Amino acid sequence: MDLISDYKNFLNKGKTERECCSFIVSEAKKNGYKDINEVEKLKAGDKVYVTKWGKAIALFQIGSDDISKGMNILGAHIDSPRLDVKQNPMYEKDFVVYLNTHYYGGIKKYQWVTLPLAIHGVVCKKDGTVVNVTVGEDESDPVFCIGDILPHLAKDQMKEAASDFIPGENLDVIIGSRNPERVTDEESNDKADKPAKDAAKKAVLAILKEKYGIAENDFGSAELEVVPAGKARDLGFDRSLILGYGQDDRSCAFASFAAMMESTAGKRTNVCLCVDKEEIGSVGATGMASHFFENCVAEIVARTAEGYNELTVRRALNNSNMLSSDVNAAYDPMNGSLYDKDNASFLGGGIVFNKYTGSRGKSGASDASPEFIARLRAVLDDANVTYQMAELGKVDQGGGGTIAYLAAKYGMYVLDAGVPVLSMHAPWEITSAEDMKQAYNAYKAFLKI
């Protein structure tokens, strides 16, 4: 396996949570994993997966011990900040056609203007058919864009705070246009010579009807995401870094999945969990705050020789070890005053352990057990894995959260452990190839505990 090449391929093919889930299922099947619905009984060595709405997935490799003794879990998220197309999105304004959007997750709105953008997602029609949409990634595809004010006229805009000078309602994507009608005095009374109202919008709708078989009202049951167009690339003359969209948290999701594919369960059952909605609070049926993972474990227990038992499910969760595989902020030399340098993570410094995340007074943190951290240190030292201990930034600057606290509620040992990212939540994020390798090796070592 060429880890970095495969990782960039994953970023290119998985720009939405649905695409990531589909990729993981396809690759897992090649490695002997089966849909749990196809399996009636499970024994040691069996490999199964469970999905939820095609947007969250849990993979299990059954160990030889009773599952009540706990599992080794790698938990990541596969959603990333983006723009979501609204349900009544298309309009024409002064000869330009737009898609109305609602941003998803924590973004700097100004970073999304004037970039080439692509549209990914699904349109679900009333007859039950699902149309997959990907436009803007192929070289022959058109791309889309959000306009901005030219600097010559931006005097008032430049006085605004960065959070305000691009309002959220102005993040509307240009998808078409038409020439302004020019009507002479002689023709001014002849309405037949004037283009019909919203002619450009109707022209775009005609293209959508021809290419995808969808009508304007089908947007009401669509899930379309606007993301940066283009592929992940090596960054720097030495190719030591990776530039790509969605590396928070797909870097950790891929490293976790790759480690799972290369591991064999011993006594403990191994799990790779990739969930949705982390960027907006882990809510919904596919987020970690749902009962998705708990239900997955119940399905596994129900297929063991002993059969379903609620206490077995509770013990399995309580006795588990988990790495919350999520990224950390890489130290930014150009903005070093935002970091406690002695407690910062550096690009190329290896996988990052965060004892706690949260913001300011550790709000929203799970605060990992030092006994668990000590065990992991010993395991990774024995495996010659490079790791670093860090926090997100200076205490009063802000902070962030992960899914760790939602797993910790079951009583399991949980530690945040992931890849440092520069320009986090920007359309194009930066990671280190070395950190990806160390994360992959760390996750493999963890699965052997």
Please write out the topology.
Elements: H1 3-13, H2 17-30, E1 34-35, E2 47-52, E3 56-61, E4 71-77, E5 82-93, E6 96-104, E7 117-124, E8 130-135, E9 173-177, H3 199-212, E10 222-228, E11 233-235, E12 241-244, H4 247-261, E13 269-275, H5 292-302, H6 310-318, E14 321-324, E15 328-329, E16 351-354, E17 358-359, H7 370-382, E18 387-389, E19 399-400, H8 404-408, E20 413-418, E21 420-421, E22 429-432, H9 433-446
Parallel strand pairs: 1-2, 4-13, 4-14, 14-20, 15-21, 16-18
Antiparallel strand pairs: 2-3, 3-13, 5-6, 5-10, 6-9, 7-8, 7-10, 11-12, 12-22, 16-20, 17-19
Helix pairs in contact: 1-4, 4-9, 5-6
Overall description:
The protein is α/β, with parallel strands linked by helices. Helices cover 24% and strands 25% of the residues. A hairpin with a 2-residue loop joins strand 5 and strand 6 (96-104). Helix 4 (247-261) packs across helix 9 and helix 5 (292-302) packs across helix 6 (310-318).
List keywords for this structure.
22 strands, 449 residues, six-stranded antiparallel beta sheet
- What's the mean pLDDT score? 94
Q: What radius of gyration results from the CA coordinates? A: 24 Å
* Total beta-strand segments: 22
Largest sheet: 9 strands, mixed
Tell me what portion of residues adopts beta-strand conformation.
15-25%
Q: Which structural class fits the helix and strand makeup?
A: alpha/beta
| Helical residue percent band | 10-25%
Q: Helical segment tally?
A: 9
Question: How many angstroms does the end-to-end distance come to?
Answer: 23 Å
Overall geometry: globular
The strand line-up of the biggest sheet is 1-2-3-13-4-14-20-16-18
Uncertain parts: none
